[in-house]
Design a protein that fits this description.
12 helices, about 325 residues, alpha/beta, disordered N terminus, elongated
Length: about 325
């Protein structure tokens, strides 16, 4: 059973509010681009292309969207500018649907009989990784699941301390050895302890910054290897946390981490504080990795299961 069995009114309102800056950025600029024009011509499409790229949808994804709209304009012969938002919405929705090739969107679900279910969380410092772990732990616990955290980001004392704070907020136990401890040893102890306790979910934090890509690959590989001594198929999920407000930098980080390890799910945080929410579309298109969560506020429930239909509806609401 998933964390969210329905998309409540409060969550919908929170999503609408969280996407306000992105929506205002997109549609105020589109409105200006079509002032005085009646048809979607090359000039309008050039303006739309610039708007999408500057909104951090990404060049490759933007060109796909523009090509689709060009095909519709050519097919329908006469497309009024008043229809542009509707057509754009349909093409973005279609793109997200097609890109859902590696599994369903929506939150991480725990398969029956898979205990403990191990989630390894990766991402650079400052993206909201620890906050995401804390909120996930709280949400799993709210569904009646037993959760154990592992503080394997031992390169910074603050990282361990922050995760301890979140474990207290969420009301879940934590395995921690402090700064300088071997991250793989912490991960091993956490999985061993979780298996002994018959925990439902284990969430392992990992270092947000290592010296270079080789070190990153080696460290993550070592953590996986020691966990597999306890549970041969661990980790069951590798969740990459990205800060949506960094726009194209989030795409670069996604590329680095997907090259370093097998990322199975994405969480994009801080959508409420940015006009760069288009990065969700670009990342989904370019990497074909399911976006499982989006962060749209400070509250525990503001880490929401990503629903592509609700996302598109909210992004184009009132447009």
């Amino acid at each position: 059973m998933g964390i969210f069995s329905f998309f409540s009114k409060d969550k919908k309102e929170s999503l609408d509010k969280g996407l306000e800056k992105t929506k205002d950025n997109f549609f105020s600029r589109i409105s200006r681009a079509i002032v005085g024009k009646t048809t979607v011509d090359d000039d309008v499409l050039d303006e739309l292309e610039e708007i999408l790229v500057s909104g951090d949808v990404g060049v490759d994804t933007t060109l796909k969207i523009i090509k689709r709209i060009e095909a519709r304009v050519a097919r329908d012969k006469y497309v009024n500018t008043s229809e542009l938002n509707k057509i754009l919405k349909e093409e973005v929705a279609s793109l997200l649907e097609e890109n859902n090739s590696k599994g369903n969107d929506s939150e991480i679900t725990i398969p029956a009989g898979k205990k403990p279910y191990v989630i390894m969380v990766v991402g650079v410092n400052g993206v909201g990784k620890t906050t995401t772990i804390g909120k996930l732990a709280w949400q799993f616990k709210s569904q009646g699941k037993s959760v154990l955290l592992g503080a394997a980001d031992t390169f910074r004392a603050a990282a361990v301390d922050q995760l301890k704070v979140w474990s207290e907020r969420a009301g879940v136990p934590i395995v921690a050895q402090g700064m300088g401890a071997d991250p793989a040893a912490v991960a091993f102890d956490t999985v061993q302890s979780g298996a002994a306790q018959n925990a439902d979910v284990i969430i392992i934090d990992t270092a947000g910054r290592l010296h270079n890509k080789v070190n990153l690959m080696n460290e993550l590989g070592k953590i996986k290897k020691v966990m597999q001594k306890v549970l041969p198929d661990a980790p069951h999920e590798v969740l990459l946390v990205l800060d949506a407000s960094t726009g194209q930098n989030a795409i670069s980080q996604c590329r680095e981490f997907t090259n370093a390890t097998q990322v199975t799910a994405l969480a994009l945080t801080k959508l409420d504080g940015t006009a760069k929410g288009g990065v969700v579309i670009g990342i989904s298109d370019q990497f074909r990795i399911p976006v499982k969560y989006i962060g749209v506020g400070e509250k525990m429930e503001d880490l929401q299961a990503f629903n592509k239909n609700e996302f598109v509806d909210s992004l184009f609401k009132g447009a």
